[in-house]
Amino acid sequence: MFKPRVMRNVKVIDLTHRMFGKLVNLPIYITATALGKLGHPEGEVVLTKAAGTKNIIQMMPTLASCSVAEMMDNALPGQEQWFQLYVNQDRVAVKKLLEKVESRGVRVLFVTVDAPSLGKREKDMRVKFVDDAPDESKHTELNRTQGAARAISTFIDPSLCWDDVSWFKANTKMKIVLKGIQCGEDAVLAAQHGCDGIVVSNHGGRQLDTCRSGIEVLPECIAALKEAGLRDKLQVFMDGGVRRGGDIFKALALGADAVGLGRPFLYGMASYGQQGVEKVIDILAEELTMTMRMCGVTNIKDIGPEYVLANNLNSHIGVAPKGYGFSNAYERMETIDSKL
Ligand SMILES: Cc1cc2nc3c(=O)[nH]c(=O)nc-3n(C[C@H](O)[C@H](O)[C@H](O)COP(=O)(O)O)c2cc1C
């Protein structure tokens, strides 16, 4: 819950923020979501264009429907784009990909670490997906019975481990951020291994059922990093379920440097293309401005733990808000009446 402060001059609100040195208009970024053309015929370049006009950062997915070149060619001059990496078992292929991305000027690499195998996504398994697979997964034999996500991700290396961080550091100058940290111990290990950042995330709830959400894990990570004296060693991002400006505020208050959003931008893109994504960004900016004003804060850097009460964040007491998608948008599995 919020703990607003009043009687402060909140006439001018500044939402600008720096992420790895880049000045952006909002403390949010578009996180990596694979297969953008499922939502819009132009795919991820729609997100690129909206991120450009609104000056926020887009994280380009390894499994994008568009090529890295297409996404980067559609960026405005000076527009910052990050790259999300699913680590291929073939390290020569990884090295080539890193070189390609780095040579185009990408400065930050997000290595997804919560997907040694893809979760069991039953709705995905029921959809009969016929499109071409993205480049990265083309050379592997596709098993089409397990859903699109599993079919295109068999190249991912399940042997990825902490020792590999030094391989990345030796093979790229990009900053290294681990995406998918889910406890304080791993946050500390990431800092100890010299990573530049972490994303506290459960992959949008798409990997292992009954994992905690990002916002629930975040305070544990911040506390563990502080206790180890390592909080200033890395950037801490969080994603998952951020739907309103107030959610952004709460994550920053609990210690995140910025937050990622996935599905809200996909919904905007699928419904209204670039304008839809821009509208989502505008709505979030308006809501964040309003929340900051009503909490008595004028700058992003001043959003701190004193503005929220999070004591029972992990207790799950009370009624959890119902997700519209879960209860309404998806078709339920029908039981089949036996004719016997
Ligand atoms: C359709 C979809 C595709 C995704 N694809 C990827 C991916 O390719 N790589 C990755 O690291 N995370 C992927 N994610 C996870 C997101 O980066 C992010 O962790 C999550 O979606 C954040 O939650 P939100 O969608 O509730 O904002 C995907 C999520 C969705 C919804």
From TrEMBL:
A cellular component annotation (GO) from this entry: mitochondrial intermembrane space
Keywords, ordered alphabetically: Flavoprotein, FMN, Heme, Iron, Metal-binding, Mitochondrion, Oxidoreductase
Residue numbers binding FMN: A32, T33, A34, Q84, T112, K179, S201, D239, G240, G241, V242, R243, G262, R263
Enzyme Commission no: 1.1.2.3
Binding site for glyoxylate: Y86, R121, H203, R206
Molecular-function annotations in GO: FMN binding; L-lactate dehydrogenase (cytochrome) activity; metal ion binding
Catalytic activity: (S)-lactate + 2 Fe(III)-[cytochrome c] = 2 Fe(II)-[cytochrome c] + pyruvate + 2 H(+)
Enzyme class: oxidoreductase
Every FMN hydroxy acid dehydrogenase domain range: 1-313
Active site feature: H203 (proton acceptor)
Pfam family, one: FMN_dh
Swiss-Prot/TrEMBL cofactor(s): FMN
InterPro entries: Aldolase_TIM (IPR013785), Alpha-hydoxy_acid_DH_FMN (IPR012133), FMN-dep_DH (IPR000262), FMN_HAD (IPR037396), FMN_hydac_DH_AS (IPR008259)
Superkingdom of this protein's organism: Eukaryota
Subunit structure: Homotetramer.
Descriptive protein name: L-lactate dehydrogenase (cytochrome)
Protein source organism: Clydaea vesicula
Lineage, broadest ranks: Eukaryota, Fungi, Fungi incertae sedis, Chytridiomycota, Chytridiomycota incertae sedis
